[in-house]
Amino acid sequence: MKIEKTVTYFDKPGVENTRDCAEIAVSRAKDLGLSTIVVASTGGYTAQIFFDAMKGTGLHLVVVTHAVGFSKPGIWEFDAKLAEELRSAGVTIVIGTHALSGLERAVSRNPKLGGSSRTEVIAEAFRKIVAVGMKVAVECVLIAADQGVIPVSNEVIAVGGTEEGADTVVVVRPAHTASFFDLQVREFVAMPRNR
Q1: What are the structural domains of the chain?
Q2: Distances (CA, A) of 68 to 34, 43, 94, 95, 193
C-alpha cells in the first residue's frame, strides 16, 4: 500500500508558525481518524491557539508543560487562570519532568561530575539532526504516556516548537520513557526546513 500526503515546510522555526501548525494538526488528525493531539506549551500561548483551533472537532487536547521549578525554583510557568479554564473545558494538562533530560541534567551540569549523559545525547541528536520541535514533540508524548493520559497503543498527533510557539507536527505511536525505542515517529506533517 502506498500513502501520499502533503508535508508543510516552514522557512524558519518560530512562534509565527503556531496557528498554521494548529490547522495542520487538526486536519491530519481528522484525516487519520485520530482522537488526540499532544501539544507542548510553556506559558499557555500555544495551548490557547490549539484549543481554539480544536473547538467543535471532537478531538482531545493534551497539553504538556514544564515541571514546576524548570526555570525558577517553586514556579510553574503556565498561566494558572488559563489552566483552570482549559481544564474546565476538558483539556488534559500534564506537568512533567523532561523525559530526555530530567535528573541526568543535574549530573551533567555539576562541575564536579560533568559530561553529557546518554539521554542528553539522544535529545541533542533530535535537536540538531531533525529539529528542536521534534525533540519537544517526542518528549511530550513520552511524558503524557508515562502519566497515563494517552495510551501507547494509539497513534497521536504530537506538536513541538523551537523556543516559543509551535513549528513541528508529527504523527507518533507513543511509548513509555522506559520503552523509548518502541516509540515510532510515523509521519512528518510540518516542520521548519531551515534550523
Answers
A1: 8-98+132-190 (3.40.1380.20)
A2: 30, 12, 11, 7, 32
